[in-house]
Design brief:
Low-confidence stretches: 1-6
GO molecular function: DNA binding; DNA-binding transcription factor activity
Number of domains: 2
Structural class: alpha+beta
CATH superfamily of the largest domain: GAF domain
Keywords: DNA-binding, Transcription, Transcription regulation
Organism: Arthrobacter oryzae
Oligomer: single chain
Number of helices: 10
Mean pLDDT: 87
Shape: globular
Protein name: IclR family transcriptional regulator
CATH architecture of the largest domain: 2-Layer Sandwich
Order of helices and strands: HHHEEHHEEEHHHHEEEH
Number of strands: 8
Distance between the termini: 32 Å
Strand order of the largest sheet: 5-4-3-8-7-6
Helix content: 40-55%
Length: about 260
């Protein structure tokens, strides 16, 4: 009797993990990727995928063989978006940033120990980075948005993440060493904005600024990404100020509308 809730919770956790992995990329994920990234056995993954497909939460693309998000996810997302009018609030800032800088602008949310890219606005500069797109997840402290958010978390939360840094950062740990991350966090706190000098992908730079909720906690972030030559030192100050101005604008709007409660 006592084991049933635990078993049920384990299934929910596994299903949620698979949905997150599939949702990382518009083109979805292969079965091999899902088995590898979830840590589950192939039969377990296949059984869960079949059940999710039967409920319309996932689809199997016959052309690519990938598993992709299904129509029920779209319907649920449409309903949920009414509770979190983030696009209406954040989109004008993204447009201003893209127009002012020519770079691609993004709005990300903190979800647990990760950041998830929610919105993007393409800039006019013809050469751009494709590291970020809607649905992409990074560990906190990785990439410009995650660094901007982590830098303003309470010290004890930062210490907890850094204590198990290699496991937390995963595939990004080699470039994002604990020492380097600590330096980045300190620099971000002092400047008010983060700079990611091609640590996720060589030649692809980013800058970010945290957006705060009603409790004054960093819950979202604005960021800009582009090629290295567009983020030279003599331009970073201006880009950082633009990011902080728009981040402050969104923080104020979220708090005044009551939408600044982190989900």
């Amino acid at each position: 009797m006592n084991s049933l809730p635990v078993q049920g919770a384990q299934v929910v956790s596994r299903v949620a993990a698979l949905l997150r992995i599939v949702g990382r990329k518009p083109e979805g994920s292969t079965l091999v990727e899902l088995v590898r990234d979830s840590g589950l056995t192939r039969p377990t993954v296949h059984r869960l995928l079949s059940s999710l497909a039967a409920e319309g939460l996932l689809d199997h693309d016959p052309g690519s063989g990938n598993w992709v998000l299904g129509p029920e996810i779209l319907l649920m997302g449409s309903v949920a978006s009414a509770r979190f009018p983030l696009e209406d609030i954040a989109r004008p800032s993204l447009r201003r940033l893209a127009e002012e800088t020519g770079e691609s602008a993004f709005f990300s949310i903190r979800r647990g120990d990760e950041t998830v890219c929610l919105l993007r606005e393409e800039g006019s500069f013809p050469v751009r980075s494709f590291v970020l797109h809607e649905g992409v997840r990074f560990p906190l402290g990785v990439a410009s948005a995650g660094t901007a958010i982590m830098a303003f978390l309470p010290a004890e939360e930062q210490a907890e993440l850094l204590a198990g840094w290699a496991a937390h950062a995963g595939n990004f740990a080699a470039a994002h060493t604990e020492c380097r991350v600590r330096e980045n966090l300190e620099t971000t706190r002092q400047a008010g904005y983060s700079v990611n000098p091609g640590l996720v992908l060589e030649g692809s730079w980013g800058m970010g600024a945290a957006v705060f909720d009603q409790r004054g906690r960093p819950a979202w972030a604005l960021s800009l990404t582009g090629i290295e030559t567009r983020f030279r030192a003599d331009r970073q100050g201006r880009l950082g100020q633009l990011l902080m101005d728009e981040a402050h604008r969104i923080s104020t709007l979220l708090q005044s509308t009551g939408s600044g409660r982190q989900a």
